[in-house]
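HUMAN: Forgive my ignorance: could you write out one protein's sequence and backbone structure tokens?

ASSISTANT:
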Amino acid sequence: MDEQTEDAVWMVNALSRYLRMSINKGEQIVSLEEEIQLMRTYIEIMQKRFQNKFEVFYEVEQDTLQIPIPKLSLQPLVENALLHGILHCDRKDMRLTIRSWRTDGEAVIQIEDNGCGMDEKTLATITSAETKGYGIRNVDQRIKLYFGDIYGITYESTPGEGTTATITYR
């Protein structure tokens, strides 16, 4: 009973921190560093919820931390990677990797999972109007709105091996 109380207090505090960070100052564009802090809080909540069944690795280049990004752009990608990727299949070494780097004047952010992967038909519907969800499509549209139509989210996936979501923008 005492352990459940500790877990409940921890979860309430983590959710409170996540909500404060997500609505802080009402800004639409934040630094990648702030967005990663918000995402880390979300991941901590999910690790607690799923009893640390997955590991998270960060390969974030220091010079990318101050680049601007629309707020709440990473959380939907991480949520999909967890709920439809690594936690959806029966695997012992569940991994989520978050990367960021700059190349040719562009910012690149990747969320990679080693989950079940997707077939080409499913992959083709992720950012289209055909999908039931709106999180990924919303992030893709906001990236295009702020940075131009040539930017946004792309996906690569191999059934049985995992999926990589890549945000590219200037």
Q: What stands out?
A: The two ends are 51 Å apart (CA to CA).
